[in-house]
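Take a look at this chain, tokens included, and explain the fold to me:
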Amino acid sequence: MGAGGDGRPVRDSFLKKTFSIDKITNLSGVKDDLIVLRNIWFSKAKGDDHAARLETFYGPQAHAYDNFRTNFLWGRKPMLAACAARVAGRSNMIWVDLGGGTGENVDMMSKYISLDKFKAIYVVDLCHSLCEVAKKKAKAKGWKNVHVIEGDACRFQPPEGAATLVTFSYSLSMIPPFHNAIDNAISMLAPDGFLGVTDFFVSSKYDLPMRQMSWFRRFFWRSVFDVDTIDLGPERRAYLEHKLERVWEINSQGSIPYVPYLRAPYYVWIGQNHQTGHAAHENKVDRPALFPPTFLYTQSWEDPEPDMKVMDINENDTVLTLTSGGCNALNLLLHGAGEVVSVDCNPAQTALLELKAVAIQQLGFEDTWQLFGEGVHPHIEDMFEKKLSPFLSQTSNNFWSKRLWYFKDGLYYQGGMGKLCWVLQCLFTFLGLGKALKRIVNAPTLEEQKRLWNANFLVNFIKHGPAILVWLFCKFISLVFCNRVVLWFGGGVPGKQYALIKNDGIPIEQYVARTLDGVAEHSHLRKSNYFYYNCLTGKFLRDNCPSYLREANFNKLKAGIIDRLTVATGTFLDELKARKYSKVILMDHVDWLDVEQARVVAQTLSEQVVPGGIVIWRSAAMTPPYAEQIKQAGFDVRCISRADQGYQDRVNMYSSFYVAKRKTKND
């Protein structure tokens, strides 16, 4: 419930956003808000032309306009941040804010980019009263490069001839001849310039999935805003996308001052002159049933080293992989893959990899290391708003904007697996094993690690204690920590995979003990096993981490390799059908499927994997039943390693590792 435990911070935050409680304590603020509300609810725009109508509507409220809109026009900050992020590094720019009103956008923009970077800023508005407020603001702020123009957005042209940035901030919906306004904006836009728009909206009856609304919401919001001569129809954005290439977009909703519960829909849209064709539209993908509302895995939970030994990754490869934590998808790029397609049915896993990719593109190494090496960052809110959010998809934006606290409490203690690791660490501490665990994790050599592991009283008890007591203890552990609920939500082990383990005749507690004992005996946690080091400490080390977190590799990705990554949310089968692949990494995906589903995957692999292509997978079963199906689909299948043959890799969690090669005509 927040600090104090009585729910007050949550309550006050809600009241502040919904009722502007900070203004309620200020009588002049309340008076100003009432003036604005009176004009919104009870005044009608009157006049023979658009300028006159604007003046009758905004004139009486111009002096109070900015304070009220701060808690109403939620799209302004993300729009300005997204624009600033895309023109960062430029100078002598021209910015034209069409329908700029009081010039508040200029003040907001100064938080994202220095106004000195602009040679000239033009605030254009047809309303005299709003322009007067803007002129006073520019003078008070000392903005020498800001010019307030009382004029028509459909006609104004900057004296310089071309603009680096043109924006419409909650103004396009109030311009009746919007075609003219958009055409005029585009005519002044420099070839490498950007057009930014934010406004209220309703979708069309059949719209993009991320915009779609029910008929009632379309009718309700359009009717409400129509009273104030504001048209929320979808045709404005449709025309924008007809004329320009969409670069970035989010659709959301924000609270309304003094109006509880209702949240008005708004969008942010960034476009530019056509470069490479329209950007792909983002599909709306719901979280799968029974998944937690976050990711299961904070890191990829398969050792990539054995994969690279059998896959022969090269620049001609198009590789399909499951996303999981995303680390291994980035590793494929570093090994030279021409293109990597990473897919997951859980949008939260996509959001995690997308954040990693955007961080590589937009941040320096140290900030990226703090985010994903340490798992914490002291300035995550500011950095997210200015550098990360402007480049994330809408789904990932929605996910992370509500979970930035992950980077306060520690990223690697979040999600299903992270919570399980945290609980186990607490249990070890409760049992008095906390210090022993730290000594094992930080053992300077593998030999010392093995000695400490076997000298630990719990391990020693399990290996050499009285049989009946060991049996009772193992059954207790199995009941509490290895039941199906914990295995699914904490370790991502579904029922079908659990059944494969049982079919091999191995009790689940023995399966877990085999995994951990093999790692402790054969893999040096401090030096090379970043998987378990992370689980036991909640962070990585600079010399013991996934490949993308090493500075030299980070620089390679940032130099352009990261652009070869495609991150998708959806089913593995749909992505497999979408194109041809030379390499496919199934991970343990087919363990999750029934016999018929596995047969379909095997058949689709035979159709989509090119001759000579390679498919690899791991399984919780010694001999997974679908291996024969893949063989019959036209692959040479061989088992690389099995758990009954001893330690396999740094994760050591699966019972078998397979590779299959698609047969050629000569085979």
